[in-house]
């Protein structure tokens, strides 16, 4: 069991990374985890990727950490700017064609997950962010009903069809996350559930 896990999402502007961060932070906190997140936005004109780090811990945390335990790659060229934060224990999750060959040399644990293909199965690429949210929720073995409730709340103003599609997307991602069997476990603190997330 780990005391602290650092998740980094790296992708282009407009891929819904902020939505993943908002949903996952609330769900992790409501599941009894201490959570801290930070976002780095790069200039789209310069071709930069945006990154969000979400730390999950058994104790209170108030800063980012340099290492990456789980890297979610959502687009091409999403790794090079943060490669100095990778370790031999880093798990890189993403579509095979988004992960450059130099990272497939055996130094890192690569998990080929075609997030955009899963999103298309639900209906459209727009669901990639919710697939990602489900994927990470499955990795942390969060209660599926809690996840579905968060999706329903988040998309309640969008209508039943969009909400239902997002629920289907989160379930698809969740099942894929469980399938990976990464064994990520962080000790929970039930008192966290009653605290306010800032």
UniProtKB/TrEMBL annotation:
Molecular function GO terms recorded: oxidoreductase activity, acting on the aldehyde or oxo group of donors
Domain spans labelled Pyruvate/ketoisovalerate oxidoreductase catalytic: 13-175
InterPro entries assigned: 2-oxoglutarate_synth_KorC, Pyrv/ketoisovalerate_OxRed_cat, Pyrv_flavodox_OxRed_cen
Alphabetical UniProt keywords: Oxidoreductase
PANTHER family the record matches: 2-OXOGLUTARATE SYNTHASE SUBUNIT KORC
Protein name listed in UniProt: Pyruvate/ketoisovalerate oxidoreductase catalytic domain-containing protein
């Amino acid at each position: 069991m780990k005391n602290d896990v650092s998740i980094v999402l790296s992708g282009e502007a407009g891929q819904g990374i902020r939505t993943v961060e908002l949903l996952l932070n609330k769900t992790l906190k409501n599941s009894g985890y201490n959570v801290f997140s930070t976002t780095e936005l790069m200039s789209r004109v310069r071709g930069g990727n945006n990154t969000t780090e979400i730390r999950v811990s058994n104790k209170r945390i108030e800063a980012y950490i340099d290492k990456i335990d789980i890297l979610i790659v959502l687009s091409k060229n999403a790794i090079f700017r943060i490669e100095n934060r990778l370790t031999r224990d880093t798990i890189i999750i993403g579509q095979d064609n988004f992960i450059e060959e130099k990272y497939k040399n055996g130094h890192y644990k690569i998990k080929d997950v075609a997030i955009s293909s899963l999103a298309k199965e639900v209906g459209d690429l727009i669901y990639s962010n919710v697939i990602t949210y489900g994927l990470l929720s499955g990795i942390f073995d969060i209660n599926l009903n809690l996840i579905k409730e968060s999706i329903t709340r988040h998309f309640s103003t969008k209508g039943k069809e969009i909400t239902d599609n997002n629920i289907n997307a989160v379930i698809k991602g969740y099942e894929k996350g469980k399938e990976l069997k990464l064994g990520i476990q962080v000790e929970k603190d039930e008192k966290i559930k009653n605290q306010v997330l800032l």
